[in-house]
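Entry:
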Amino acid sequence: MEKRHGRFSWYQVNATDAAAARDFYCDIAGWQAQDIAMQDGSNYIMLGTDHGPIGGIMSLPDEARKAGAPQHWLSYVTTPDIDATLMQARDHDAQVYVPPTELSDGRFAVLADPQGALFALFTPNVVDEDTPFAPQPGDISWHELMTTDHKAALAFYWELFGWEKLSAHDMGDMGIYQEFGRQGVALGGMYDKPPELQAPSHWLLYIMVPNVEERIERITELGGKVLRGPMEVPGGDLVAQCLDPQGGVFAIHATAQS
């Protein structure tokens, strides 16, 4: 389990319209979808690529809808002991939204880091092999945290998952973009949100696609919007940050060789 500690292991859309989210993201990312009947009578939509499942879609809980929660993505991070990690998170001022809960294949919990960004913990019943991460089209290739204090956020996640501080990039007026990773492999980046931006701290997930420009055209055809991009990032890759038709934020990414 230690080899998988701190690895992103699942991605979930908490949707205002689960069927619409399924149709949109399967079109954009090339995912396959399968309906799974849950014990409580609800429907869970499993999402996968040719090399296996990567996430799912569920309807926003009624209490979240009543509170005005928008459609959003939620990332799950593996830990060998969810109770110990949750206690550690609480000791560092994290807020727990869903306490440890049993699933058929493990236990999960949902919480917010000290700066308010949502994420989930997951402890599986069976640990599979931790193979090197080499994202292919359809995979989540990058995990980006916009926060109020990226240094404090990285310290928090280092305590929980051992995420390492990697390269830092000076973005001028936008400040420092700090990459992080595990076992020397980059997983994503963190940066401080601009003071004028009203959005809360949140994780942004990048879906790898074969071609960013083509996917942008399709996103707009399906009722989504492009917020930023396409833009080139260090190394020559292209990215674009977008909204899905229900207002959920996501991003797309293509390598320089694509």
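The longest strand covers residues 95-103.
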